[in-house]
Amino acid sequence: MDPHLGTFPILSYVISRLPSFSRIKLTFKFRVLLKQTVDKVCEIVKKQLVVEGFGTFTGSEGETYCGSWSSDRKQGYGQKRYANEDFYEGLWKRNVQEGEGRYVWVNGNEYYEEWRNKVICGRGTLIWANGNRYEGQWENGVPKGQGVFTWPDGSCYVGCWNKDLKVHQLDGTFYRGIISLLL
Known about the structure:
One of its GO terms (cellular component) is membrane. This is Phosphatidylinositol 4-phosphate 5-kinase 2-like. The protein is α+β, with helices and mostly antiparallel strands. 23% of the residues lie in helices and 45% in strands. It starts with 8 loop residues before the first helix and ends with a helix.
């Protein structure tokens, strides 16, 4: 008896009584038809299943998301640990970071506050593992506009920034830190 037809005993019996050439041909056709039918049913079921509410997802690369879902998308509050061990917790909208959230890189750097369409944007703070800190305006993932950069010794620069923390015209004020004054 063909193991693929075991769940269809009558059909399996009929096929087993046919001459071997016909049996092989019919069995092959039935397997193809059965596979196509199963594939189609799986496709229909997959289209109809929609994740809603609260749940945990583990991806094939090892990333995990635990949080709110709506229409198969991350929506609302959730926490995601990426395969490289980076971590995000905060608000999601249509599967991307949107609104307030905190991202911690595996190297110890941390950003918190505003996200727009999965990009750091608006008001936010980035704290480096070495103690440097930038607090201010961001645009498309880079500091842009008013902000304060503070070094670990307490020194800081207050002014206008333009990409990659480079000072856009030294129109701000530099304040020496307490540690610098003691040296």
